[in-house]
Amino acid sequence: MNILYCGDKKMEKGFVLSALSLSRHVKEPLHIYIMTMSLWANGKNYAPVSGRTVLSLERHLREKNARSSVRLFDVSAEFQKRLPVPNMNSRFTPYCMLRLYADLIPEMPDRILYLDGDVLCRRNCSAFYYQAMEGREIAGVLDYYGKWFFRENPLHFDYLNSGVLLLNMKEIRRTRLFRRCRGLCQANKMFMPDQSALNRLSSSKKICDGKYNEQRKLQEDTVFQHFTTSFRLFPLFHMVSVKPWQIDRMHETLKLTEYDDLLEEYQTFMTEMKGKKV
Q: Between 216 and 48, whose confidence is greater?
């Protein structure tokens, strides 16, 4: 099973935790692809994902399946050549657009599952991963909030959340979807630029059941839980943003203990990685 993550060094904890959650429910080899880059933008110096973390994660995954692998791709040069200037100062880091450069990596497989770093796997995801994708560029789940406000077809909901996307790279290369999305990001400032571009330009997206990207609250049939920012009405209207590696907040704010065994494995991994030579 091929998995894609994108981000900087600060997101390493998310990639690790998400990959560990997959390894608990996927028995076949996991082939993790991580896209990263070095970047100076908006007065901030973004550091790339470290090779040390990649090697430690690969070693850990191979203890469960010897054929698993983790590969790191630095796309700094490609990003600089195609800089999405209007969207470099959004509320999201420029790294959110990295997935739109995946078609420039020759080693990228024809079928790959993209996951945000704050997505945890709760059940076997093979049915989602191996679904029919002939003639389809991407498959995903409707955005919980965005489906009401953004849609290309006024007659039905069609606005996908980009945190969990099955990518048909062969079709994406044929239609030049990512190339066109990069061009749109270079030309226009947008809210959630990568997600907006994908929804606007994909002509063959596939809408899947919400259990494959649960963005609100854990359900009995949830396969992937995505820890996005959500809104609460009581006792007063407020936003809630808790990431899965924020263990105390997972317990205190979300009252969620579902992943305690996973979080214990994650803490052990992080402690051992810091103490061992790679």
A: 48
